[in-house]
Amino acid sequence: MAFLLEACSVSRYFGGLVALEDLSFGVNAGEIIGLIGPNGAGKSTLFNVITGFYPPIKGRIIYKGEDIAGLKPHQVARRGIVRTFQLTVLFPKFSVMENVLLGSHMKSQIWRALFSRSGIPESEVKRANDILEFTGLAHLKDHMASDLPHGHQRMLAVAVALGAEPELLLLDEPVTGMNSDEIKAMTNLIRTLQKTKGITVLIVEHHVKTIMDLCQRIIVINFGRKICEGSPDEVRRDEGVIEAYLGREVA
Amino acid sequence: MPIRKSYFFLVCCLSILVLLPLFIGEYGLMILILICINVLLASSLRISMNAGQFNFGIPAFMAIGAYGSALMTMKLGFPPILAFFAAGMLSAIVSLIVGYPSLRIKHVYFLMLTLGFVEIVKALAIRWDSLTGGPTGLPGIPPFSIAGFKLVTKISQYYFTLFSSLVILLVLYRLEKSRFGLIIKSIEQAEDLGETVGINTYTYKMLAFAISSFFCGLTGSLYAHNMAFIEPTLFGFLLAIFVVVYCFVGGLDNFAGPIAGAVLLSILTEPLRGFQAYERIFFAIILVLVVIFLPGGIISLPAKLSPSIGRLRCIKKR
Questions:
Q1: Taking CA B163 as the corner, what is the angle to CA B179 and CA B185, rounded to the nearest 5 degrees?
Q2: Which residue of B has its CA nearest to A144?
Q3: Which end of chain B, C or N, has fewer beta carbons within 10 A?
Q4: In this prediction, does ipTM exceed 0.95?
C-alpha cells in the first residue's frame, strides 16, 4: 500500500545551517506517527517544509501521489494537511467560537463569504459547535481566545485545525505546558481522531510517555537527519537514539 | 438593551442630520459635505486597517476617482451618476495593479509603496496638464443630476451626499460583519494560522485593498461633482496622514470609530482652515494625546466611563 505522505530525500538549508539533510520517511493512512529528536533537530522545520511555509532545497514531498513541495500553505491545507504550531497561535481578539469558525473557512466558498449578509450559515455554526463539544471547549465558546488558560488554548489550536477537516494532522508539541489531566484529554482526543474519524496524525512531542502510548511508529531525527525509525520499543533500545539524547559515556 | 440604545442614538443622529439644513447656511452645509467626505475616507481606510494594512494610498485612489469622474463627464460626456460608479471601478482596478506586487512583500514596504504611489498620482496630475488642468486644477466640473434635475444648490448636494454616504456606510458595515469581514480581521491577528486552514491571505488582502480603493474612488467623485473644482495638492501625503489620524483618534476596535474620529477632527480643525501650519500642529497634538491617554480612541470613552458597557464589550471584543 502506498504511503499517504512520503518525504523523499528532503533537504533544507538556511545559508550555512543544515536544518534537514536527505530525510526520507513515509506515513501510512490511519497511523499515528511520532517525530522526536533533541531541540534544534529540525522537527519544526520539517513541518514547515511539508506545509509549504518554505520549500525544500532538495527532495520531494509526495502526498497522495502528488509532489506538494513548494506549494503555498493554503494550497497544502486545501489538499487535506493541517498543522498546529509549537508556540500557541490563535486569533487572540476573536472568541473561541469565531476561532473555530475561521478554521472551517474552506468549507465555505469565497463568493458566498463576500455576499453572505446574514452572517454565518446554520450548518457551519453546528459544525463548529460539534468540534467544540468534541474538544471539551463548548462551555467557553464566547470567551476571548487570549483570555483562556494555556492548556485550553492549546486544545483550541487543535479545534481550529479540526475545523479544516484534515486528512493528515501535523501536531507540533500539542501537550507542552499541560498538566496530567489535560495531557490525558489530549491523548484520548488524538486516539479518538484516529479511531472514529480515520485521521492520520504526525506528532512532534518531547513528552516521552505520550509518544510511547500513542504512536505505532516513531521517527527519530537529529541534526536534520533520520537516525532511527521503528516501533516505540525498538526506538527506546536503539543506541543512536540514546546517544543523541543522553550523550556517549566517556570510557 | 444596549442594542436598543444604539438604534435610538442612530435615529436621533439621523434626524438631526436631516433637519440641519433648516438651521445652517450654505457655508455650514459645505462643511457638512466635507465632513461626509472625511467620514467616507476614514471608513474606507478601515477595511485596509482591519487586515492590518497601513494603506497610505487613500488620497491617490480618491484622486483617481475625482479626476476620473470629472474627466469622464467633461471629456467623454458620461452622465455624472454613471461616472460616479465608473470612477470607483477605475480606482479598484488601479489598486489591483498597485497591490499585485506590493501585497506580496513585507508589510512596511507596502506602506512605503502606497505613499510613493500617492506622490506618483499627484505628480501625474500636475504634469499632465493637457488632461488634468495641471497645477491650477480642473474647474467647472458638472454637478450630479437626478432624473434631469441638476443638483446645483448646496442643500440638494448635501442631501445627495448624505444619502450616498449612508448607503456606502451601510454596505461597509455589512461587509465587516459578514464572514468576509471576519476573515479580513483574522489576517491582522494571525496570518500564518489563516494560511494553515486554507485561507489564501494574499487574495483577501488584494480584495480588501480593492474594496477600500473602490470606495475612495466613489468619495473622490462625490467631492469633485459637489465642489466643482479639484486640484492636485488636495490629494497629497498630508491627507493620507489625516485619514490615518481620524481612524486612530476615533478608535480602530469599532466600526463607528473612524466615523467619530473624522467628525470630531473635521469640526475641530475647521477654524484652522487656511492656517496650514497650525492645522498640522493641532493634529499632531491630538494624536499624541489620544495615543497616551485613550489608546482605544474616542469610541472607547463610553466603555471607560460606564462600567456596565465596558463589561459587555469585554466578552465580545472584535
A1: 20
A2: B315
A3: N
A4: no
